[in-house]
Design brief:
4 strands, 25% strand
Length: 110
Amino acid sequence: DAWPNLYFPEYFTSHKRVEIALYSWPDFCNARNLHSVDILKIDAEGHDWAILESVLTSPVIPKYIMAELTLDRKEFSTALGLLQQQGFQLRREITLDGHKKMVNWIMERP
């Protein structure tokens, strides 16, 4: 909560609660009658892996996915295996932190 106030104080002068609708990936696609998606960017502040798992087990799987994932070695192997089972190839891996396995992945499903 602190970083927006620090970097953008002019936009965060008051606090108010806003309710938003949350959808699973399959429900989101069904609600919008989506049968194919070209690109999906996931940025959920530490929850990207859970979303990615949901996407990879749904009927609508994008051709390209970009996600930031913090994974240990075992989780990394699991994630890569699941992606490969769905026909994805890792196109680019950008390491952001040398201590954790935090990477931005760009994956393609040819």
